[in-house]
Known about the structure:
By secondary structure, the protein is α+β, with helices and mostly antiparallel strands. The chain is built from seven helices and 14 strands. The protein has helices spanning 103-106, 153-157, 215-218, 224-229, 239-250, 254-263, 290-298, and strands at 21-28, 35-44, 46-48, 51-53, 63-70, 79-85, 94-101, 116-123, 132-135, 138-146, 172-181, 190-198, 205-210, 269-271. The radius of gyration is 19 Å and the shape is globular.
Amino acid sequence: MSHHYSGPDYGFPHGDARLDLTDLYAFPKPGNIGKSILIMNVHPSAGVNPAGPTTDEPFATQAVYELKIDTNGDAIADIAYRIRFSPSEDGTQTATLRRVEGEQAAGMGDTGDAGHTILEGAPVSTGPEARVTVAGDYRLFVGWRSDPFFFDTQGALNNLQFTGADFFVEADVCSIVLEVPNSALGNRKVGLWQRTVDGVGGKWVQADRGALPSQSVFLTGDEKAAYLAAEPADDARFVGVFAHSLEHTGGYTSEEATRVAATLLPDILLYDPTRPASYPGNGRALTDDVMDLFLSVLTDGKVTRDNVGPHNDLLNDFPYLGAPHKARSSELVAA
């Protein structure tokens, strides 16, 4: 559960699976050092609480899916990419991608429709064919794909008694895959995080946010709702609750737990597009075993692996994620 099931009691934020962030990836485009691949995964195909499949509709149409970028290290966004989706018609959706900068990037805006429109009318994929939209130096994929995250979820829920059973091996997820020129990021180290913003109630309310794997799921304790509603610039306020959780899960002393907790915040993924991706040092590749690293921190080295490895259906080319395991339209699922 990298960031899957970040709502109350391993449920979904605002009770809507489509608003649930799962994973954030950032890595240089293979074969092109001038571009980067940014992947924002949301909406897992199966839930834990309640258990069972989620809705087949990929994205919430009264929401904004946002990738925030801090270019100067102050944990405040200087650039943001915003994706909104049209209402479903005959089982289809389309996406509009916008870029905002400065104060607009740091905030939400009145409607979520501000900024420069990069592309619109991008088709949402629901079957095995990856429907890709190109606009200048940008490339966008939106739709259902095979979930690249790997972890023994049931082992985690069973007091970290792992059996090596990958809960996600046949799971799907809704992906927003964005290819960007590095010049759009400033050609230097940046900080990344993602969020979903819900507009169902008539005003924009942040439903979920995060960047680093599993922190909001396992470390926020009674402060989960406050954490999901907060911004990285204010994350120092959560060092205490993170430390308390680490004392419980890892047997850390109070002093050591506080020290370790401080290294986990703010909840931002650092990425230098001029260097290879390798979590936690730089960005995150699709095959990085982030949960083994997290388990080691969570337990102070008492548990270091869940015996699950990367999936074998990743692609060599854009959008890099394998075809979905289930058909959700007239398109046929991959064999």
